[in-house]
Design a protein that fits this description.
Layout: H1 4-21, E1 25-29, E2 33-35, H2 39-48, H3 52-78, H4 94-115, E3 118-122, H5 124-145
Antiparallel strand pairs: 1-2, 1-3
Helix pairs in contact: 1-3, 1-5, 2-3, 3-4, 3-5, 4-5
Length: 146
């Protein structure tokens, strides 16, 4: 039980890193065009297309805040007794925002499949991102209960 939190944090960090750089979904349109965007690629694409506000929102809630949460969980887990009290209470709410991204990608896949205009399938990035959300939430619960 002593090694559960370090293993969870390591797995959550690894899954998060893979989840933001690997493709989230594969979209095939008109049997010719295929796209496999990653989360980082999506934010970059929004930025270069001139959708700065949307790029900032997605980058903030999908990349920056989960990174902050993982960092604070590492600090709380390894800084010794009483350090978990220094983790802000609003940090727990960040897990909900991270899971929202997974739900949105699932909705895009569902919409593409049911529209008949494109075929879509989940890719490893989505699964790693979803795993990081669950692992981070579990690690946060362990830190709170210490």
């Amino acid at each position: 039980m002593r090694y559960l939190l370090p293993v969870l944090l390591f797995a959550a960090t690894l899954c998060f890193a893979l989840g933001i750089v690997l493709p989230l979904l594969r979209v095939d349109r008109l049997l010719v065009f295929t796209e496999e965007p990653s989360l980082v690629g999506l934010v970059f694409g929004l930025w270069t297309a001139g959708d700065w506000l949307l790029a900032l929102l997605v980058g903030l809630f999908s990349i920056a805040l989960p990174t902050l949460k993982l960092g604070l969980l590492h600090v709380a887990a390894y800084a010794g007794d009483g350090a978990h009290r220094s983790v802000p209470r609003w940090l727990a709410a960040l897990s909900n925002w991270s899971m929202l991204d997974v739900v949105l990608v699932a909705l895009v896949i569902f919409a593409a499949k049911t529209s008949g205009l494109a075929a879509a399938a989940a890719q490893p990035g989505l699964w790693f991102f979803a795993a990081s959300v669950v692992l981070t939430a579990t690690a946060a619960a362990l830190v709170r209960h210490r």
